[in-house]
């Protein structure tokens, strides 16, 4: 035991040994070289079950919206597991005292973002002593502590009704009297939250504002309440000082090494100059607090949820404005790289052309002053898990991309265990765990992440170098390659993002012919070490979903390659010039093949669809290019001639490009009754949040177009919302489209996670029920396509790519999905296809349905298994 001085009392009289000091304050690392493991404390590990239930009805691990019991001691106990993954820092969700239960939202603050006191540890997570012990344990292991913080808001302690007046903040004001454990913050000045008291109004600690109803409105974004959370007046010097004092406390008392700032976009960018660099002696900025505790490179990175559309940089520029002011003043050290997150998911999960990711990589280096200090991620607690719509192979590729690009890699807890649920627990007693612990260090994803982290750790060019995109397929999933260079070192990273074999052709590495590429890592088996061919180019087959990392080494003396001049004079395989204008269908190409009996004509790297060509006696040749699967006139398609093997080795022509402008034919035009968005029995009601008032799930019309083997489905809605600034251009509705392909056996009838099966309509030919082979699920931030393999009531099926192209016309109230022939399995025609469309809403899963509606849940259920279908089309059969 210990006495009041902290001495250990021993059996020997008068002998007192002081406990060794805790290792709380350590010098800052070079953050570029770190790997961060991000965990949600309540869902990670339960080290002390005694603090789980605080008696406020907030603890129930059977429910996703309640506390599950994870705590700070649990994190400390699992440090070896985290370190074995290759992580060097642990980022925890806010540990501060929270609003435990919000009756208005019918949710608990287990996540930590609903503060009631910024300077106390939440009782569910432990004590200040527990937090110090975690810091000490991490630092003793050579690791660092990252704390999530919130400067934009507190919990939901008040709100405004419909009669609110901007001139009189007392009108339509209401206190959340049922909030637990209390109905107001306990920390001064944040406790001054009732405008009905003159002193509180004068203090101006809060913006007396209602909920944001348009996230594209800058005034609302900065000054109104986000999802009911009380918006702090961060322009007020009193608020600024209180926040600096609050968060400086954790650096001084616990030894926190970095901060992640939640909802940074919801405060003015210039706020962070004060927060980080203030010279206030009593409450200095975070950089000064850190300096006083021995940290000269204190990292403060923010969250700005902004994902750009392909080849657009609007959100990336907004993110940069939070790192660097218009005058060039540094603000936040870094920002989470949301545009890169979106592009990684598009390329590796949704089958978008890798050129979109290639642009994002190049743009990041051009737009951001400090790209290497921008944390990058694959998924997190606010977005769908990668595996909710992507494959394990795609996840490995995305992780490898993250580890070989500039930015601080962040691994979200559970990714290494193959989690598909957004906030499932790692420990057996927690929500979503399946009743077992998930700390399996033999899991293949765990081992792969450790391998990728070791690659980055052992080769600093991946954490400090500059990428140059060398090649990226523009039309479909396929080849993607970039070169990383730093201080005379170079490496090449190559992917095949397709689920089939593709050709990588004419990869110009900028090195002499004969240079050997030393294999550092591959997704499957030992990495090969190819030798660069003529003109310093590399051409080879890439297996499905493969990835390779090669270090550029010296020229290989054991395999002479003809000098550049000897090959350039008379290339053995050539293509004649292609049409400059877009073609409308199949067309003929020609060229020269010297000394070849046959070769392959390859379009967009697709070897499985390559056409064998036999040249004439004079070496001239011509062949027909099949354009049936090409639907986007903006896409430049890549064409090469390729001959593999033989005495001369592999030969490839220079590549050429062409475009296709197809004609779409209207195949079906089906009206859907107005105001039938009430569920199958007509009794469902919308969520009570006012943003649902326009009834965005009411389907009015379905038009279906065809072009060869491709489908275009245009949905007209009662209303289109973009209030939450969704990436896909619409929110407050999720569409699920079921497609039965003609001539294909099997298929599923179940509608996963919707408590329903497809209609069994006698009107269909033969009276058989509809089956689906493709299922598209899309909402504002996701776009996932599945086939029926493995589909069940609680399983989506198997992810396939490419997913749909999405186009929104808000004025016309239409959302259009285009499914290419490749997405549908390359049918030559869509005649006989059956289509069924449903609407609901989605947020990490199909939204809840209860007997009574809630702010973000539907009402009208009679049983727990009532169908999650708000509106639906009839089954549409294409002629």
The level-1 CATH class of the largest domain: Alpha Beta
Question: Quaternary arrangement of the chains shown?
Answer: single chain
Q: Please report the total strand number as a whole number.
A: 45
**Number of helical regions:** 16
Percentage of residues in DSSP E strands: 25-35%
Number of domains: 5
Major beta sheet, specifics? 8 strands, parallel
Distance between the amino and carboxyl termini: 83 Å
Radius of gyration: 29 Å
| Arrangement of strands in the largest sheet | 14-13-12-9-4-3-16-15
Overall structural class, as computed from helix and strand content, comes to alpha+beta
Mean pLDDT: 93
Percent in helix: 10-25%
**Topology-level CATH name of the largest domain:** TIM Barrel
Query: Shape from CA axes?
Result: globular
Extract low-pLDDT stretches.
Answer: 1-15, 558-568
| CATH architecture assignment name of the largest domain | Alpha-Beta Barrel
């Amino acid at each position: 035991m210990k006495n009041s001085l902290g001495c250990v009392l021993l059996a020997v009289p008068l002998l007192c040994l002081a406990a060794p000091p805790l290792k709380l304050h350590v010098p800052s690392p070079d953050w570029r070289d770190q790997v961060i493991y991000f965990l949600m404390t309540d869902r990670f590990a339960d080290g002390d079950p005694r603090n789980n239930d605080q008696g406020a009805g907030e603890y129930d691990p059977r429910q996703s919206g309640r506390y599950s019991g994870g705590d700070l001691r649990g994190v400390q106990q699992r440090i070896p597991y985290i370190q074995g993954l290759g992580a060097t820092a642990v980022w925890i969700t806010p540990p501060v005292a929270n609003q435990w239960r919000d009756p208005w939202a019918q949710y608990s603050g287990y996540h930590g973002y609903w503060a009631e006191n910024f300077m106390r540890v939440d009782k569910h997570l432990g004590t200040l002593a527990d937090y110090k012990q975690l810091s000490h344990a991490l630092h003793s292991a050579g690791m660092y502590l990252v704390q999530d913080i919130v400067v934009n808001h507190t919990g939901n302690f008040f709100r405004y009704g419909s009669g609110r007046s901007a001139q009189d903040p007392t009108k339509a004001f209401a206190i959340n009297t049922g909030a637990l454990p209390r109905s107001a913050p306990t920390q001064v000045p944040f406790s001054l939250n009732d405008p009905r008291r003159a002193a509180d109004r004068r203090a101006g600690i809060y913006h007396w504002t209602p909920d944001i109803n348009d996230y594209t409105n800058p005034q609302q974004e900065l000054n109104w309440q986000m999802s009911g959370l009380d918006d702090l007046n961060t322009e007020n010097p009193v608020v600024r000082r209180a926040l600096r004092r609050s968060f400086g406390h954790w650096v001084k008392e616990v030894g926190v090494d970095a901060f992640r700032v939640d909802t940074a976009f919801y405060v003015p960018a210039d706020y962070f100059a004060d927060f980080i660099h203030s010279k206030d002696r009593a409450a200095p900025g975070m950089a000064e607090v850190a300096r006083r505790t021995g940290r000269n490179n204190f990292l403060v990175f923010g969250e700005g949820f902004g994902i750009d559309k392909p080849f657009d940089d609007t959100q990336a520029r907004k993110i940069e404005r939070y790192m660097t002011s218009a005058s060039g003043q540094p603000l936040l050290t870094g920002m989470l790289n949301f545009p890169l997150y979106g592009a990684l998911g598009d390329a590796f999960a949704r089958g978008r052309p890798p050129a979109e990711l290639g642009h994002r990589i190049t743009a990041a280096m051009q737009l951001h002053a400090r790209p290497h200090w921008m944390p990058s991620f694959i998924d997190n607690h606010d977005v769908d898990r990668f595996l909710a719509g992507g494959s394990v192979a795609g996840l490995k590729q995305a992780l490898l991309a993250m580890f070989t690009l500039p930015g601080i890699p962040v691994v979200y807890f559970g990714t290494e265990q193959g989690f598909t649920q957004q906030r499932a627990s790692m420990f057996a007693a927690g929500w979503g765990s399946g009743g077992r612990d998930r700390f399996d260090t033999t899991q293949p994803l765990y081992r792969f992440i450790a391998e990728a982290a070791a690659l980055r750790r052992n080769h600093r060019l991946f954490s400090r170098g500059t990428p140059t995109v060398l090649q990226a397929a523009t039309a479909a999933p396929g080849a993607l390659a970039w070169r990383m260079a730093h201080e005379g070192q170079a490496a090449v990273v190559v992917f095949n993002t397709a689920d089939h074999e593709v050709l990588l052709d004419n990869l110009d590495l900028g090195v002499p012919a004969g240079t050997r590429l030393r294999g550092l890592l591959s997704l499957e088996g030992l990495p090969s070490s190819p030798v660069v061919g003529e003109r310093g180019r590399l051409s080879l087959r890439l297996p499905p979903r493969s990835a390779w990392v090669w270090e550029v080494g010296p020229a290989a003396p054991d395999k002479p390659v003809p000098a550049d001049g000897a090959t350039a004079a008379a290339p053995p395989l050539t293509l004649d010039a292609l049409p400059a204008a877009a073609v409308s269908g199949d067309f003929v190409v020609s060229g020269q093949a010297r000394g070849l009996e046959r070769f392959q004509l390859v379009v967009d790297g697709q070897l499985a669809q390559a056409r064998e060509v036999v040249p004439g006696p004079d070496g001239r040749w011509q062949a027909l290019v099949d354009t049936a699967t090409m639907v986007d006139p903006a896409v430049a398609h890549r064409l090469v001639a390729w001959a593999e093997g033989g005495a001369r080795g592999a030969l490839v022509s220079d590549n050429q490009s062409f475009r296709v402008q197809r004609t779409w034919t209207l195949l079906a035009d089906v009206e859907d009754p107005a105001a039938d968005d009430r569920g199958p029995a007509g009794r469902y009601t919308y969520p009570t949040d006012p943003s649902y008032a326009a009834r965005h799930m009411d389907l009015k019309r379905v038009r279906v177009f065809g072009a060869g083997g491709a489908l275009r489905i245009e949905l007209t809605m009662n209303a289109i919302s973009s209030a939450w600034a969704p990436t896909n251009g619409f929110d407050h509705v999720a569409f699920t489209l079921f497609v039965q392909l003609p001539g294909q056996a099997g298929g599923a009838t179940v509608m996963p996670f919707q408590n329903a099966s497809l209609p069994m309509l006698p009107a269909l030919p033969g009276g058989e029920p509809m089956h689906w082979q493709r299922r598209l699920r899309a909402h504002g931030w996701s776009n996932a396509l599945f086939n029926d393999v493995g589909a069940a009531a609680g399983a989506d099926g198997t992810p396939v790519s490419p997913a749909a192209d999405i186009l929104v016309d808000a004025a016309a109230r239409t959302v259009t999905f285009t499914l290419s022939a490749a997405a549908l399995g390359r049918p030559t025609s869509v005649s006989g296809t059956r289509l069924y469309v449903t609407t609901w809403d989605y947020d990490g899963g199909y939204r809840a349905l209860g007997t009574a509606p809630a702010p973000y849940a539907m009402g009208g259920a009679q049983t727990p298994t009532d169908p999650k279908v708000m509106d639906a089309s009839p089954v549409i059969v294409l002629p």
